[in-house]
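Subject: Protein entry, chain in single-letter code together with its fold tokens

Category: Structural biology, sequence-to-fold work with a learned token vocabulary.

Notation: Tokens come from a learned vocabulary of local backbone shapes, not from coordinates.

Start of record: The labelled sequence and token lines come straight after this line.
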Amino acid sequence: MTAMDLVTLAQQQPTVPGTGNVRNWILDNIVPLLLLTVALLLLWLGGGKGDNAGVMRRLGGVIVALAIIGLAVTTDAGANIGQWLAGLFVGG
């Protein structure tokens, strides 16, 4: 290597590894698989016994959980929500 090559190499910005690809993979693969599993379990456990009201109660909880996940993922407000929740317990 020449001195000019070393100067050019030293001036380049370092690449910082991120978690964007892992986050996208989880959102694209794991979340739909978990939703499918929850739906099948709700239908199998409650619907097979004729307990449709019980299935709808559980489904309400699932919808609330999905709304929280959607809010945290799509708006990138997860850190702010976490700080707010921590402030409720810490008092800050």
